[in-house]
Amino acid sequence: MAISFVVGALCSAVAGYMGMRVAVEANVRTATAAEQSLESAFRISFYAGSVLGLAMVGLAVIGMSVIFLVTGQAHAVLGFSFGASTLALLAKAGGGIYTKTADIAADLVGKVEIGIPEDDPRNPAVVADNVGDNVGDVAGMGADIFDSYVASTVAVMLLGASFAETLQYQYTVIPLILCTLGVFASLLGIQFVRVREGGKPGAALNRGTIITCIIYIAMLLVLVFLGHVNMAIFWSAFVGIVAGVLIGFTSDYFTNDQHKPVQQTAKESTSGSAITIITGFSYGLISILPSILGVVIATLISFNVTQASGLPGVYGIGVAAVGMLAISGMIVSADAYGPIVDNARGIAEMAGMDHEVIARADVLDSAGNTAKAITKGFSISAAALTVLALFAAYAEVVEANGMAITISLREPLVVAGVLLGATAPPIFSALLMLSVTHNAFDMIEEIRRQFREKPGILAGTEMPDYDRCVGLAAQGALSSLVLPTFLAVGLPLLVGFVLGPDALGGFLGGAIFTGVIFALFMANAGGLWDNAKKYIESGKFGGPGSEAHKAAVVGDTVGDPFKDTAGPSINTLITVMSLVSSLFAPIIAVFHLF
Amino acid sequence: MAISFVVGALCSAVAGYMGMRVAVEANVRTATAAEQSLESAFRISFYAGSVLGLAMVGLAVIGMSVIFLVTGQAHAVLGFSFGASTLALLAKAGGGIYTKTADIAADLVGKVEIGIPEDDPRNPAVVADNVGDNVGDVAGMGADIFDSYVASTVAVMLLGASFAETLQYQYTVIPLILCTLGVFASLLGIQFVRVREGGKPGAALNRGTIITCIIYIAMLLVLVFLGHVNMAIFWSAFVGIVAGVLIGFTSDYFTNDQHKPVQQTAKESTSGSAITIITGFSYGLISILPSILGVVIATLISFNVTQASGLPGVYGIGVAAVGMLAISGMIVSADAYGPIVDNARGIAEMAGMDHEVIARADVLDSAGNTAKAITKGFSISAAALTVLALFAAYAEVVEANGMAITISLREPLVVAGVLLGATAPPIFSALLMLSVTHNAFDMIEEIRRQFREKPGILAGTEMPDYDRCVGLAAQGALSSLVLPTFLAVGLPLLVGFVLGPDALGGFLGGAIFTGVIFALFMANAGGLWDNAKKYIESGKFGGPGSEAHKAAVVGDTVGDPFKDTAGPSINTLITVMSLVSSLFAPIIAVFHLF
Q1: Is B551:B580 a contact under the CB 8 Å cutoff?
Q2: What is the tens place of the pLDDT at every residue in A88-147?
Q3: How far is CA A302 from CA A208, A297, B162, B502, in A?
Q4: Test mutation, A239, A301, A437, A443, chain B, max B CBs within 10 A
């Protein structure tokens, strides 16, 4: 188990490292290629992103398969998953704090106080800001999907391992096969992502996702018919994929400037920033509905189809999650593309490249934002199904240890557990966001100090001290991780050992329910504010510099830690909590106070 | 049942009407009395507030007792409770939209754009704003606690009615007796609320609350020993009161400017409004922890004490809620005092009274804000225990209709219900807040139009058209209520009839869990932003007019619909949902699709 933990953490780290390394190389090349054509710049940045996507799924599938082949135990793979998720928590939460500390501080002093453009090389925080885009967005998002991907597979393996002896092996291996097929489907799908000069990169990315899904569904059909696999597996995976794609696209409704939420928020920004905040906040809350409905429908269908076929229904819920995540190779490729083109745009600006080059980089960048919104809706919904499967796996593990478990809401210990669990995600996100504001506050002082003490910086005759800002962001992020990490690992153990396994079941349930809601709300509200600002910048409601624009900038800044720090970390939080509980379930089942 | 519904709604309306009527009369008298002394101004305003407090508990106890005596059925009192809660939903949500529409619009145009003081008679929205303080804060808060008060009593009556025949009558009547004792305790406690010139009104209000608690606990002891009542009743009620008071005072930590959260938010406001929002939002999320812990501990103790005494444990949870709410007479008196002195201050300002008078009114006003924060923490926690008791009552009603009910989180239908229920409070609050911003946007246009078309208004030579603003606020609030009301009444029925009673149980659970969290978070974040602004206005971090102050004003405006519209309405939402479910449970138990 310990070795498996280390291997999981290593695989996650290697995938993130490769992604970052390639992204950093690709930033400059994309900017240079944008001098030639949109087509070649797009190709470089997307292929660079696909390095992360494919490395991630490849390492995950190989890692899990090797551990299972060597040990023959699904339970050992749980260690791999726990290792991957622990690293993801650090990468996502730490990276998220880092990137937004630098981003907010750079913007507030640079853009708002001094009035220099974004990514201006005179800003002492500009390097920290660009580093942050790679740390938080490339490595963080990669680690985030890596952990859901592994956790959903492990959950289904654990459920399969609890089947009757004749079915056990087949149903433990099926999730690994589903993942492997997904890797090949992604490899094929990626070939279809191309864009011509004047074409739309956003449409190309979406086309790639749809084609990957179709290829994957076809592969599933072949598997089911040639491999004599239970048809319920196909339907569950199918429902998962369809739900994932639909949820991704409905998230788009709330964050795309073609629709009412963004436009209305932009319009009401003319009444000041408070109205911007309230309106965006409210639309963010409403945006959770389609995703929750999608998860509910996918859960009910996959459960009932699977139960009707004679297998335990929860297995189907897990397969739906695996189905949703199987095409992660393609999804992560499209997502990692975003920060690469974002930074390419920054480099083009800093290097003083032609107006035409920056315009091309802008086209690439806006497609990155659309891809990002869809990926986030997708990854949160997938995480929701994953933790539902993990939740079922937890109950299985407790029962396998000879203890009956009833997670009934009529038991006060369970209700106590749910109430405590439900507070964990909000408090976790609050701690991360407070770290961002505290660290940003310190960095703002540092940037102001540099401008004050070295007047040559603004004149362009003196170099700012980039390193100090990078150091501040890194130290601040690391020291801020202690309490949130305790919350993720320590709290479930505390609840389990004190209140017992039933209450811990309630705790996990509560954490899942509010976790999914907060994750969706924060990701979508953040995306909405970002795009409302960009909508005004495109010349609506007074355009750049207007009162509406100032209000929208406040909304965007509030949204930054929502969408890039707290929101995406919540997924990982609930995964880690579920994994810790399953890992310690055998001990908790025996030792608990109440 | 129908008559009982109408009587409940009428009692709630009469209590609210009396409170408002007296408050309106008392506003002017308080302002006039403030010309004499702080003591007499305080006496008038607090006694006026106590009219609402005592009218409310008196009408509730009499109404419930009469209906129970006439029908002999606890189930009939459910109709009374449903009537009271339906009216409370309209009063609280509608009043909350009304008051914040007027408040935000008046402030944004008056204070921010034109630069005239708050409550300036030249502002066309000033009358709507002052009317709103009465509608939302006096009638709304009264209706809110009225509904928790009645609902908790009914829940315990229903649970008592399910006991074995020999115990039935006694345990159905006990909650009514607990309420009656609370009325007398409040009457006595109110006599101790006095303040001298130079004294602290806030301390006087808190002293009144503590003394009322002590008197009530003494009365309970007498009841238990002389009336040969089960000792578990005493302990459950005791735990409820202690938890209620402790939760109220810990809410104070997060909203009082003596402590870190408000001061830190004020300090970071120097970096701009985005930071103010993120910091206040985060502290608001953290503030839910003490209250949830209090509710969890009160639940576990009251359940276990009661079960150990041989009674069903859930009855104890209900008694804890009734114990918490029994002293509502005192709590509501202290709370209704707030808007009275707030308006007295407004009248003093509008009437151009002496600086000294306004200073006295300011002292009275700041105590009102402290009382308000404590009441809100108290009422939300009480509502949480109430709905937990109602939740238990719902399960009893389903079982009484011959249907076994399992609300296990291992059943996918229950999980589906919980997920759907958990989305209801956030979406409900989003709808209310969007109504506020949309209506405020319209009213801002109207105020701007009046200033533009009648330049005499600002010069003081022409009267603004107050009526149009009052009309806009009222119409806007009423038409905005349709969808939220459907959500409260229609959604539980839809879930029940389609997914069945188990899923409806999950739905109620989910709504309770996120409802409590959002209600606490919104009330506390709103109070925190309000006081951070006041802290800066007291001269800290640059004082009024500084950049920090501007940022804090944005926070305060965002917090307005949080604390006065969405937050307090959520309590009533979850109560109405629970009551609807219990009312229709007999039908749903027989007819449902799945």
Answers
A1: no
A2: 888 888 888 998 899 888 888 887 788 888 778 888 888 888 888 777 777 777 777 788
A3: 26, 8, 39, 19
A4: A437
Query: Which of B330, B374, B343 minimizes the C-alpha distance to B41?
Result: B343
Which residues are paired to B408 by β-bridges? A408
Mark residue A352 as left, alpha or beta (left: phi above 0; alpha: psi -120 to 50; beta: remaining): left
Contact yes or no for B491/B514 (Cβ under 8 A): no
What is the pTM assigned to this prediction?
A: 0.92
From B282, B423, B434, residue closest to A433, measured CB to CB = B282
The answer for B230, left when phi > 0, alpha when psi is -120 to 50, beta otherwise, is: beta
CA–CA dist B73, A304 (Å, integer)? 41
- Is A285 within 8 Å of A295 (Cβ atoms)? no
Residues B51, B332: Cα–Cα separation, whole Å: 9
Q: How many folded domains does chain A comprise? A: 1
Contacts of A271 in chain B (CB under 8 A): 108, 437, 440-441, 444
Which tokens belong to B259? Answer: 């402590």
Give me the percent of chain A exceeding a pLDDT of 90.
42
Q: For the segment A319-375, what is each residue's pLDDT rounded down to a tens digit?
A: 999 998 998 899 888 888 888 888 888 888 888 888 888 888 888 887 777 677 677
Contacts 24+ apart (CB under 8 A), B59-62: B59/B11, B59/B12, B59/B14, B59/B15, B60/B11, B60/B15, B60/B84, B60/B146, B60/B149, B60/B150, B60/B153, B60/B179, B61/B176, B61/B179, B61/B180, B61/B183
Give A254 to chain B, closest Cα distance, Å. Answer: 14
**In whole angstroms, what is the distance from residue B131 CA to residue A262 CA?**
33
CA separation for the pair A527, A254 (Å, rounded):
8
Helices assigned H by DSSP within B72-192: 74-89, 95-106, 126-132, 141-161, 165-190
Question: Which whole-number Å values give the CA distances from B129 to A428, B123, B460, B496, in the listed order?
Answer: 37, 10, 19, 41
Tens-place pLDDT, residues A30-40: 999 988 888 89
Strand, coil or helix: A163: coil
Find the domain containing A522 and state its range: 2-590
Helix, strand, coil shares, percent, chain B, to 5: 85, 0, 15
Q: Any idea what DSSP says for residue A116?
A: P
DSSP codes, B87-122: HHHIIIIIHHHHHHHHHHHHIIIIIIII-PPTT-TT
Chain B residue numbers with beta carbons less than 8 Å from the beta carbon of A541 are none
Q: Residue B133 and residue B123: Cα distance in Å, rounded?
A: 16
B512: confidence class by pLDDT, cuts 50, 70, 90: very high
Packing angle, helices A355-400 and A141-161, rounded to 10: 20
Which three-class secondary structure string do you get for B322-354?
A: HHHHHCHHHHHHHHHHHHHHHHHHHHHHHCCCC
Q: B154: which residues sit within 8 A by CB, 6+ positions away? A: B64, B74, B77, B78, B80, B81, B393
Do A140 and A284 meet the contact criterion of CB atoms below 8 Å apart?
no
Nearest to B330 by CA among B212, B248, B471, B249: B212
Whole-number average pLDDT of chain B: 89
Query: How many C-beta neighbours within 10 Å does residue B244 have?
Result: 31
Residues A169, A510 contacting (CB under 8 angstroms): no
Q: What angle do CA B140, B141, B146 make, to 5 degrees?
A: 100
- Measure the CA–CA gap between B329 and B49, rounded to whole angstroms: 10
Contact A279 B423 (CB under 8 A): no
Cβ contact, residue pair A282, B557, below 8 Å? no
Distant-in-sequence, close-in-space partners of B356: CB < 8 Å, separation ≥ 6? none
